[in-house]
Amino acid sequence: MNAQQLSERLKRVAAYVPPNAILADIGSDHAYLPCYLALKGNIQKGIAGEVVKGPYESARKQVQQEGLSKSIEVRLANGLAAVELTDNVTAVTIAGMGGPLIASILDEGKEKLAGVERLILQPNVHAKAIREWGAANGWKITEEEILKENDKIYEILVLEPSSSPVSYTEQELLMGPFLIKAKSPVFIEKWDRETSQWKRILLSMESTEQTVEILAKKQELINKIQLTEEVLHGENT
């Protein structure tokens, strides 16, 4: 992978960045995503934020190699601390992290989201945390995508500010409102895998001491299995 040829996962993230956006890519690693978009002329300006010194240096080198130093600025900072309100950022991408970490980055940097028109988020796991954050903070999901690459399944969530309260059902929070409707083969594969794993865990818990904590965990797993199986078997309305 390089700035000219992204992985399929990052290509799909790039596809949701609006034309002429001022982009902040948080956790940018080698800055491949903003470089790719700048080389295609799809963004006005890019900020590549990286909290770790090594990837920060790699991103700086990449930007220089591509001749993009005037259009992409690489900043060493934690999360949205890489963004200043004077940057007038209109789109934020965060890809390749866990959902809870992405949600915490958004929460800790909420004030930096003023004026942002779109969040494009690609959690590796636990996308539910992002949906919960969005609903609690006035960001509605406008698009979702699920894809498989190198035997790993990824979700992409696109969020935009909402003028009215945002709420989702338990199933929608867990599995995604748009993904539930589409019910693609990759979606079915993901949730078949998840429910099989939960059932294995449940079975293994039968042989342990049935403490209050274990009983609570069992009930949580039973609820998740019920929610997912309703969707997979078409019982949801």
SSE diagram, text form:
Layout: H1 8-15, E1 21-26, H2 32-39, E2 43-50, H3 53-65, E3 72-76, E4 91-97, H4 99-108, E5 118-123, H5 128-137, E6 139-149, E7 152-161, H6 170-175, H7 177-182, H8 185-205, H9 212-232
Parallel strand pairs: 1-2, 1-4, 2-3, 4-5
Antiparallel strand pairs: 5-7, 6-7
Q: Outline the biggest β-sheet.
A: 7 strands, mixed
User: Which overall shape is indicated by the principal axes computed on the Cα atoms?
Assistant: elongated
Radius of gyration: 19 Å
CATH class type of the largest domain = Alpha Beta
Count of separate structural domains: 2
Mean pLDDT: 95
CATH superfamily of the largest domain: Vaccinia Virus protein VP39
Number of strands: 7
What is the SS-derived class?
alpha/beta
Stretches where pLDDT is under 50 for at least 5 consecutive residues are none
Strand order within the widest sheet?
3-2-1-4-5-7-6
Element pattern in H and E: HEHEHEEHEHEEHHHH
What does this structure look like?
This protein is an alpha/beta fold. Helix content is 43%, strand content 22%. β4 (91-97), α4 (99-108) and β5 form a beta-alpha-beta unit. α4 runs parallel beside α5 and α8 (185-205) packs antiparallel against α9. Pfam families: TrmK (PF04816). Keywords: Methyltransferase, Transferase. GO terms for molecular function: tRNA (adenine(22)-N1)-methyltransferase activity. InterPro entries: SAM-dependent_MTases_sf, TrmK.
